[in-house]
């Protein structure tokens, strides 16, 4: 997992000084807000210059001017979904010390994000992971890169817990990341397929149980009595 970039909030940048460029960025931002919603319902492959223009009731030329191609639009939508993941899931958890406490915070913020239906069709990154896993290309690579960052964040948090002593020393951080990610992905699948909120109580219990198993054994080892 060491090849991924850190999933962290970006540093703030100044606003563009050129008025036309600033307006163009605002227009592109508005298009992306709709693009991620459409992709969550229709899939990344259903997100095209034409389909987004139709959804917005605007000219195809306007959408094409902002993105240039279907592939660029899809990748931009993935990057927007990444920004939303950072803002709504990662950033709130980063104020908590690394280790089990941060894993607890990441779980709660992730479940809150999933159950609040931020996207019309459910978490775009979750659905895109399944949609694109067998479709090699730049869009798949973009999805994989974001999910690799997410797994790395979970693994790094577990590794930090080992260093702090609140995670058992024999724990494999990559296994922790795999297990916890599986719980969240299953919760999103259940929520989207069956509706309602019934997915999240068992998902939260599963997450808590997984973290409980990470903690060192508090019971002291019994010394063997001398014969």
Arithmetic mean pLDDT? 88
Q: What is the level 1 CATH name of one domain?
A: Mainly Alpha
Structural class: mainly alpha
Using the CA coordinates, give the radius of gyration.
21 Å
Number of helices: 9
* Silhouette: elongated
The CATH homologous superfamily of one domain corresponds to Tetracycline Repressor, domain 2
The portion of residues assigned to helices is: 55-70%
How many angstroms separate the termini? Answer: 50 Å
Largest sheet: none
Keywords: DNA-binding, Transcription, Transcription regulation
GO molecular function: DNA binding
Organism: Mycobacterium numidiamassiliense
Protein name: HTH tetR-type domain-containing protein
Structural summary, described in words:
By secondary structure, this protein is mostly helical. Helices cover 68% and strands 0% of the residues. The protein has helices spanning 19-42, 49-56, 60-67, 70-94, 100-115, 124-132, 138-164, 173-194, 200-214. The relative contact order is 0.12.
Mind sketching the topology for me?
Layout lengths: L18 H24 L6 H8 L3 H8 L2 H25 L5 H16 L8 H9 L5 H27 L8 H22 L5 H15 L13
Helix pairs in contact: 1-4, 1-6, 2-3, 4-5, 4-7, 5-7, 5-8, 5-9, 6-7, 7-8, 8-9
Protein name: HTH tetR-type domain-containing protein
GO molecular function: DNA binding
Keywords: DNA-binding, Transcription, Transcription regulation
Overview features:
Tetracycline Repressor, domain 2, mainly alpha, elongated, disordered N terminus, disordered C terminus, 227 residues
Give the gist of this structure.
Residues 1-25 are annotated as: Disordered. This protein is mainly alpha-helical and 227 residues long.
């Amino acid at each position: 997992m060491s090849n991924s970039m850190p999933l962290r909030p970006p540093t703030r940048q100044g606003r563009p000084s050129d008025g036309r460029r600033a307006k163009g960025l605002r227009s592109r931002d508005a298009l992306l807000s709709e693009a991620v919603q459409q992709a969550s319902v229709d899939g990344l492959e259903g997100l095209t210059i034409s389909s987004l223009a139709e959804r917005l009731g605007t000219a195809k030329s306007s959408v094409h001017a902002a993105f240039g191609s279907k592939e660029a639009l899809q990748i931009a939508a993935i990057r927007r979904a990444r920004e939303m993941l950072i803002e709504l899931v990662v950033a709130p958890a980063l104020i908590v010390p690394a280790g089990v406490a941060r894993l607890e915070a990441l779980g709660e913020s992730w479940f809150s994000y999933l159950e609040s239906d931020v996207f019309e069709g459910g978490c775009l990154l979750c659905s895109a992971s399944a949609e694109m896993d067998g479709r090699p290309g730049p869009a798949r690579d973009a999805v994989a890169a974001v999910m690799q960052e997410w797994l790395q964040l979970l693994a790094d948090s577990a590794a930090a817990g080992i260093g702090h002593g609140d995670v058992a020393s024999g724990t494999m951080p990559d296994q922790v990341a795999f297990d916890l990610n599986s719980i969240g992905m299953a919760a999103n699948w259940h929520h989207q397929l069956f509706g309602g909120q019934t997915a999240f109580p068992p998902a939260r219990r599963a997450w808590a149980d997984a973290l409980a198993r990470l903690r060192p054994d508090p019971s002291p080892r019994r010394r063997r009595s001398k014969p």
